[in-house]
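We emphasize that the prediction below concerns an isolated chain of 658 residues; any contacts that depend on oligomerization or on bound cofactors are therefore not represented. The input was used exactly as deposited, without trimming of termini.
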Amino acid sequence: MSSTLTRPAPPGTAREAVAPRRPTRIFALPEARWAAAALVLFLLALPLYLAGTSAWTWAPLFAAVYATGGWEPGWAGLRALGEKTLDVDLLMVVAALGAAAIGQVLDGALLIVIFATSGALEAIATARTADSVRGLLDLAPATATRLAGDGTEETVPTDRLAVGDVVLVRPGERIGADGRVLDGASEVDQATITGEPLPAAKQEGDEVFAGTLNGTGALRVVVERDPSDSVIARIVAMVEEASETKAPTQLFIEKVEQRYSLGMVAATVVLFVLPLVFGADLRSTLLRAMTFMIVASPCAVVLATMPPLLSAIANAGRHGVLVKSAVVMERLGQVDTVALDKTGTLTEGTPRVTDIRPQAASGLSKDEVLRLAAAAEHPSEHPLARAIVDAARARDLDIPLVEDFVSAPGAGVSARVEGSTVAVGSPARILDDPAGHPAVAVAAALEQDGRTAVLVTLDGTPVGVLGIADRLREDAAATVAALGSLTGTAPVLVTGDNPRAAGRLAAEVGITDIRAGLLPQDKVNAVQELEQAGRKVLVVGDGVNDAPALAAAHTGIAMGRAGSDLALETADAVVVRDELATIPTVVRLSRRARRMVVQNLVIAALFITGLVVWDLAGTLPLPLGVAGHEGSTVIVGLNGLRLLADGAWRRALAGTDR
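Result of the prediction step, given as a token string:
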């Protein structure tokens, strides 16, 4: 937060003007359409099959399930096979067809539906994230007013601006390119870039950014960066690049799946061909091979992982934390360092009156000073004005009507209130001779403490000083302490706010590692520095400026109530109700889920190994093999579902992940 008074009356804030998230049309995606068709056909066939009706009633429906849900992964697997790569999806399609070949039509169809649905959900998530990243570019205006050498104006697309061009930015307009102010004075809401809740005063020589919102003053700006290299464009590039850095984990998983697939296929072929070479019966050999394919199927292994993680996701969702995938839930339990944004994360993100200091010589009370200030500020739309008016209303003060309202960018406002002139603004701007005045000393003390100081005068005489600051969330200090205890490392504060305000807040919540005045790329650098030191970093933020760091981190969590669309899409999890205390709770829940995954993998491995050995060393009856295979999936599934209980959340909230 800035510690100097700012005074435009912008028609809206940058956060309000963030491009709305473009809704993903789910059924525009082919994966979603095929998965939906397979599911509907399966639900139509299932009751007919279970009721024992003629195969002519349910067999065509199941065949359609195989076709609609399996043709796309099957075709993709065949293409991969042509490139000498065995895709796990192809293996699952073959396993489903193998199950059907030996009469297990229902099992095969269910396997097809599960994999088709999984592919559709992945496609939807990818499309929505891509839409959100592209939507960020809409923050920058499509056109700008370029000034020619003779002063004439020309409206041009912003992508045609070049370094050295001079543009005119009128009040209430968005700035079209990164540049520097040549002339004029105003205040610019640049929350999308720095995260600061209050507009920043801009005058000749100050830097401005594309996509930020100008206040009430006109500015002439010289373009210093090509539009493709603007800060807002670089945020988009960094989000995309950082998101791609998570691909190696996925590549590792695919490599493991491929090796398992190769081993399973090779074993099945050997089990089928070798006995035939030695004269075994074709039908019994095929039955043994297909039984092997069923009992060796990784369904139990898949269920060993998913029920605990999905149950933890559902439990967290009921308590206001949206975790976007099972992978994210697992990664949350691995974090050992937390980096927290300030504005909108540790604080509420809305300026509020924290101090009312009447001047003794004025004889006015706190309520009287606040009442006069609120009356003068009432016509203004500036965030500080709203804070003052809200404070007066909270005290049930009567706010009188005013006349002759005047707003001066960067200075303050003045108005006639009940026959007297009331001015509200920066002490240095509204006092003719501020040096040595007692009110200036009070204002300086407030600013030193990280507040924004606002002087109130009555007919030119100072009558009081107001201190305005963003308010700390009630659970901020407790959350910081819990995260430090949980990870074994004290949290880090990463903020675009000024060092003085950041230091004051850090002292209140118990943070000693403070990194202030950071632009988005600086936050990414801070995260990368921690990760290069071997840390697995959890970043918690809320704004567009936090999105690159959220994407670059091992795991990112966004505050949902006031968070930008891009931050919500980029983050791996969202705290929907803005309750900070849920963050350490969900980390503990994740750790318990990860331990349960290990338990389930052991159970699944024991069942699969036992059934495979039985099939190879003896004669495993097909019904018993199916029962053992399905029984293992039921056991690990029920074990994982224990995390659905509210008791699991209560234990995590109480500080234990056991």
